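Researcher: I'm preparing a figure for a lab meeting and need a structural model of a single chain. I don't have an experimental structure, so a prediction will have to do for now. The sequence is pasted below. Please return the structure as tokens so I can convert it later.
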Amino acid sequence: MLFNSAIYLFAFLPLTVVVYFWLCRARWITAAQGWLVLASLFFYSYWKQEYLPLLLGSLLVNFLIGNELSKGRMARSDLPRRALLIAGIVGNLLLLGYFKYANFLADNLNAMTGWGLDWPKVVLPLAISFFTFQQIAYLVDSYRGHTREYDFLRYALFITFFPQLIAGPIVHHHEVMPQFAQRRNWVLRHRNILTGLCIFAVGLFKKVVIADSFAPWADQGFDSDLSLDFFQAWVTSLSYTFQLYFDFSGYCDMAMGASLMFNIRLPLNFDSPYKSFDIQEFWRRWHITLGRFLRDYIYIPLGGNRCAEWQTYANLFITFVIGGLWHGASWMFVIWGALHGAALVIHRAWKAMGGRLPKSLAWLVTFLFVNVAWVFFRANSLEDAMRVLRGMVDLPGTLALTTADIPTAGFAWGGWSIDWWLQWLPPAMVAQLPYIAAIAAAAVLLTQPNASRLMAVRVGWRLTVGCALLMAVGVYAMLASTSTVFLYFNF
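Model: Understood. Here is the structure written out token by token.
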């Protein structure tokens, strides 16, 4: 089930909220939490029922291991807790590796050795990357004594809570479960409902109005075999840069908004990352919970910055190569991760030498690097990436751009044919539409409040009216749109 679907917005979400708080009001707290688990499992299996047993099996095994780790030394075994932790982590990684990387490994072995392995095609289960990482974090937290959860129902709620199940944020046990145990959160709070709806409206608008408008331009540039000129290449790369941000941050806003309706606050996952002045700051603002996971469970265990300088550089690079590979079984993701790892190494060395740039130049360098790196993230192959990059450096002899250069057949706004709208616009304006859209998106980036700021302010009538308008436009676009899937569902 998708956040940007009528069945979710008009049936599933309101019904789940009403029943949950009705059960809480009757003091049937266990039943209320059980209802949330059942609703979340329905939400997950609505996409594909075949992977529900996989999710349930993973929940049970990880709960049992975490339960033993939380108790201290095991009661009926001489096996050290560290060995049990390692076994749990390896088991999760093997499960993820089979579904996500088996075909990738087989294809590369065949290419290198010519063995001709006939590996069956494995379909990636929805959300396996996210719930696997979250459960690994739970096991480590249990080993460290940071969890006290011995109830399978509450553990299942922690993992399957539907607002963050499919694409994060990746949360820790201590960030969510204590909130479900607080009595004041068992009462429907109208302020949280209103604020949650406002945050959800912003996220829906980001997804169906902004992200889905950039999608045709990005797809036409990346998925075509044709060479791109300077303008087409930059429209292609910038379109994907904006599409990805608005798509994923829109999802996270909708997740935070829906969660707040249950009086549960999820951690912020985006904090205007394209405003960053260096690559380190970018990773403090982009997909914050993934960056935190990579830092806490890969970078620091490798030694972090508590070792020789060259080892610190190696740890940074390795961490981001792994982070790139986590996104998908493709060398393009490895290249993307390696680029970011190398950029962080260069940035750290630059800072160590006392290097500084003017703020405007620092922002420009950071944004251009991120934009170029996204080309590898989106491209289907190295050849496609190089085709776009060659166009980006192919300076034109003239700055003229005609209407014929604009892929009007591929434009979409809310599912209506853009050609119907274009007939009412002057030809000069039609020729500039990609730039108008890019400028509008940049203006929103510079002024938008993120979800955490909306949570911190009291929602007055002006903000309510503004969010209602966003919701209305978003729902209109949602009902008319044919583009539905969030990009991060692929990872």
